[in-house]
Amino acid sequence: MSDAAQNPPQISIVIPICNEEALLARNVTEIRRQLKEIRGLDWEIILIENGSTDQTLQIAEQLSEDPSIQTISLLNANYGIALQTGFLKASGSVIVNFDIDYWDVEFVDIVSHVMKVKYDIIIASKNLLLSKDRRGILRKVASYGFRMILFFMFGLRVSDTHGIKAWRNSEKMQSYFRQAFPAHHTFDTEVIIRAMYDQCEVLEIPVEVIEMRTSDHHILKRVPQALKELLAIRKRLNHEKLSE
């Protein structure tokens, strides 16, 4: 792991965290352990604490005693703002976003090699034929419905926009990070839409998903807000097109 100011790492891993005291120390320690096993890989972990009311910030600051981990604290709980902040802060040539309850270090190893050759975005898709999606049925149905909405509303042909992804940390991608509105549910979706409209190269690879949280009831509560955010994206993009 390197001093990013002098020698930027190959990989920046951005992890938004909010009220994650139960999982944070254990999972970050395990992510770090697995990363250290990848020979020749230089990396940093950026924890974006946002609006926690438990001991998440204090735990994150303790973890940040390791120079390969840094913590940024935001006042309000907003996943989109946390992602955007981490993406704009990252110094690695490739950015990978994890959730503290959904991560895959093998994916980091893969993209560290593949992105040397090609692709602007690599998506670990839960919806590919070879993926192993062990989530509950309600989550699977919600993912399929979201995918269909993206296809009919934006012509988006990728199978997944949520979850683990890798982003080439280029000037072009940084411009998408700044242009996309940091909505709670759809910031990363808007970045992908903007990138694909601009003919960026996107690859999807299969992933295995095992739930660390088993409750599905909050999924239904998220649907109306996610739909509202998608309509706002379409309105923004149409306005930008008319302004050209």
Chart the SSEs and their pairings.
Elements: E1 11-17, H1 24-36, E2 43-50, H2 56-63, E3 69-74, H3 79-89, E4 94-97, H4 105-114, E5 121-125, E6 132-133, H5 137-154, E7 165-168, H6 171-179, H7 187-197, E8 202-206, E9 208-209, H8 217-243
Parallel strand pairs: 1-2, 1-4, 2-3, 5-8, 6-9
Antiparallel strand pairs: 4-7, 5-7
Helix pairs in contact: 1-2, 5-8, 6-7
Nutshell version of this structure?
By secondary structure, the chain is of the alpha/beta class. 44% of the residues lie in helices and 18% in strands. It has helices at residues 24-36, 56-63, 79-89, 105-114, 137-154, 171-179, 187-197, 217-243, and strands at 11-17, 43-50, 69-74, 94-97, 121-125, 132-133, 165-168, 202-206, 208-209.
Outline the structure in words.
The chain is an alpha/beta fold and 244 residues long. The chain has one domain: Spore Coat Polysaccharide Biosynthesis Protein SpsA, Chain A. 44% of the residues lie in helices and 18% in strands. It contains eight helices and nine strands. The strands form two sheets. Strands 3-2-1-4-7-5-8 form a seven-stranded mixed β-sheet, sandwiched between helices. Strand 1, helix 1 and strand 2 form a beta-alpha-beta unit. Helix 1 packs parallel to helix 2, helix 5 packs parallel to helix 8 and helix 6 crosses helix 7. The longest helix has 27 residues. The protein starts with 10 loop residues before the first strand and ends with a helix.
